[in-house]
Every structure is written in C-alpha cells, then in structure tokens.
DEAD-box ATP-dependent RNA helicase CshA (Litchfieldia salsa), 505 residues
Amino acid sequence: MATFSELGIGELLMKSISKMGFEEATPIQSQTIPIAIDGKDVIGQAQTGTGKTAAFGIPLIQKIDIKDNNVQGIVVAPTRELAIQVAEELNKIGQFNRVSILPIYGGQDISRQIRSLKKGPHIIVGTPGRIIDHINRKTLRLQNVHTVVLDEADEMLNMGFIEDIEAILKGIPEERQTLLFSATMPGPIQRIAERFMKDPQVVKVKTKEMTTPNIKQYYVEAQEKKKFDYLTRLLDSQSPDLAIIFGRTKRRVDELSEALTLRGYAAEGIHGDLSQAKRISVLRKFKEGSIEVLVATDVAARGLDISGVTHVYNFDIPQDPESYVHRIGRTGRAGKHGMAMTFVTPREMGQLKNVERTTNSKMERLTPPTLDEALEGQQKMTIEKLTNTIANENISYYKRAAEELLEEHDSVSVVAAAIKMMTKEPDETPIKLTEEAPMRSRRERSDGNRGGGNRDGGRNRYKGGQQQSKSRSGQGAGGQGGSSSSRNRPSTGGGKRRNFRKTEA
Ligand SMILES: Nc1ncnc2c1ncn2[C@@H]1O[C@H](COP(=O)(O)OP(=O)(O)OP(=O)(O)O)[C@@H](O)[C@H]1O
Ligand SMILES: [Mg+2]
C-alpha cells in the first residue's frame, strides 16, 4: 500500500482523491500511476474491483490542458452503462481541475451529443460504435488526442470488436499515449494489444488467483430442470442485499426475470435488446434497492461498480473463464466481501474445471438448500426485522392493539401469525424456462458488437416462443433488506476491508 502523495499527482487531483474518500492507493494504482504520468504506454492488469478506473483516470486528467478546447483524451468502454459509469468517476476525479468529460454512447439522441461535442469537452468516454459514428460525421475530431484508454481492453480487442478499435486508433496521432486496463489479459490478446502500443510497460498485480480472495466461490451441480427451484431456495436461504443473476441469452434473461417476479421477488432484467432508457432505469432501480435482483446477460459482466451487491449467481455457466472472472467480480469490490454461486449441469462439469484451471481458483461444492432450509432462512430474516424494530423503533402506538389481541389469543399464536405474515414462504408457482442450446465458445462467434456497446452474452439469436404462465402471482416482494444472516452467508458488506480503506466523503 502506498499513499497517493508519493505518486507524482498534482495538488488539485490530490484534493479530489481525498474528497472521494480514497486513503491509500491500491497496488494497481501505485504501480501504474507514476509510469503513466511519465507518459509511457501501459498494459495494466489487476483483479476486479481494485480501482483500475482511477489508475488510468488520474494520469489522464493530470495531462489535460484545460485551456485547450479540443478533445485530448478518449476512453473506450465495451458497454454503454460502463461508459456512463467511467465518465462519472472521471468527473469526480477531475472535479477541481475543471476538466470537462462527455459520455457518448449508442441509444442516446445523436443530435444532443453533437451539441455537447460542440461545447469542447476535454475527454470523451464512449462505446466503439458511437465513437466511430461521430468520427464519420466529423463531429468528433481526433487530431489533438494525446491519450487513449481502452477499459476492458481484452474484451474490446476480442474478435468482433477489434475492427472498431482499429478504426478509432487509426485516426489518432501516432505520438499518443495508449493505456489498456482489464482484470483479464489472455496472452493472444496482449500480443494484439502490443501492436497498437509503443514499448508498453506491462503491469500485472501479482496474485495467485485471477479472482479476488474477497469472493467466496461455490458451484451447485444440478440438472437443467432443477436449476430454477434451487436458485429460488438459495435466494431465500442466503437473502442477499442485492444479487445479480447471469443468464446466457437475452431470452433467458427475460424468462428468468419474469419467473422470479411470479415467485415474488423484486427482479428485473437487463440486456442489449432493451431500449437505452429502460436499461438505465433498471440499473438505477437496482442501485437504489427498489429491485433486489438484477437478471443480466454479459452486458452487465464487465466493469460495473454497484455497491451493495453481495451475491452473484451464474444461472448458466459462463462462456469462458474470463467471463466468469468479470461476472463474479460484480461483488467483493473495494475490499468488501461477496459470494458467487455457479450452476453447472453434469455435462458441463468439464467447463467448470476449465474455469478453475484458468483462474487458478477453486469453487466449493454447495448442496442446494431444501425447502425447509429456504423457509428457515426467510424466517430468520423476519425475526431479525422484528428484533430490530423492537430495539430501534417507537412501537408504543401499537401496544394497545397488541394487548387487545392478547386478550383473545395466546401470545405464541399471535407472534407466530405475525412471523408468518412477514415471511416470504417458498413458492412453487409453475414457471416457464426454455431450455438453452448447448453452449458455444465465444471465440467461435462471428457477429461482433456493432452499434455501440450492446455487448451481450450468447449470440444465439432465438426466435423462441412467447412464454406465458397463468399461475397466481407471488406473494409480496419479501421485503428483504438490511442486514441478515443465514447459514451460507459470509460476512458480506461493511466491516472488513482487506485491500484498502475508504472513508465516507
Ligand atoms: N484507492 C482507493 N481507495 C478506496 N476505494 C477505491 C480506491 N480506488 C478505487 N476505489 C473504489 O473502488 C471501487 C472499484 O473501482 P473500479 O470500478 O475502478 O474497479 P476496477 O478495478 O476497474 O474493477 P473491474 O475490473 O470490475 O472493472 C470503486 O467504487 C472505486 O471508487
Ligand atoms: Mg473497471
């Protein structure tokens, strides 16, 4: 751990870093910031949630000449939500330097973007498709760009994306500085990357595993048909604060979120076929906690930093080890703890082993909870809520009603009824899930991601039938929230911070 003051960072930036609550630099930050400030090309690899955004953001902002109204820096990100998030983080980092940052991404009104581009932002953060669009319209000029960042570089240099990246880099002056960051950097991709760079310094934060030790990793072996019931039992017994469930295809995500809603969970889906407005509103609701379960394709696997995500479920095993690393990395960020569960059918066991081998980490086998255990988990939640209410809330107004009730019923029955009413009981409402075709490796796909960050898992485009389920709707949204504890639950959130500390700003 190093302090930021040793890294050659300017005064105004130091002020924003401290306002953001960063006390110490993370390893990737202390190892890359000085060389990036020095003007060198950098390939930076470090585990998910360890502050790579600031690792490139600080040197990038430091280099901006605010008197020059040309675009000087470009950050490219694979998805729209990530572009927005990175722009927000850069805004915080640059808040005292008065650097102006503009996100541009697909699905947003282009004429509005053109107007914003005319105002002369210093840094553009965008998805490949939309950046190219603006280059072609000549509404984005690159001749004054001195720094380019590829966030999630391996993803963007993957087949299907590389042409877009080449097209963008072609227009940027050769003497530029190029910074590439990701939690994963497979060898072949690194070699492609080096083609675009000048004598890049490769910084890999050395760790035994590709995944972070803050995430407890489990697998659940289950027949395809059993997976959904096991998922809901796990949700009940583990009671996550916020959970992300990854499915393989867009249809899968739609069906899963519908099925979860039927069973009484506050769930919504996000994938690349939804309108941008919908994608943003779903993500906002998830961040606020008004939905507790986000069902997603790999569009949400990379880079998203949502605090409070305690559990990640891979309902379908990811397409490759890299995808696994990024998906589970949506929890256990910034020193917090999290849990990841991966469902695997017997014939997918080989893939599971492959993930373990590549990431050099081990998943522990988890037996799915029984219905009784699921109920027990939910009951515990209720009791915790009751105990908290007794301890912390003013309940005097309700005491008279309680006394009246107790004149007619015995106290155990009254309390048992209250617990029953507040507890989300396991629900076996029939649901419909279409079986997925056998998984193809992502490397085989040919249809790249055009049109600006619609990156989605599973390119299989099904015309699949409408699913409908006429069953009764679930009972209440099982108002979870607050802290909870149950059998399988580690001490997630709050408390222990292993890698670095953050104080509230
Ligand atoms: N030095 C620091 N001290 C405390 N918190 C930090 C520090 N640096 C970054 N953070 C916070 O840690 C969280 C994770 O950072 P970030 O999103 O940059 O991770 P990342 O390495 O890019 O992860 P991923 O590989 O998933 O993209 C953010 O909320 C960020 O504000
Ligand atoms: Mg990141």
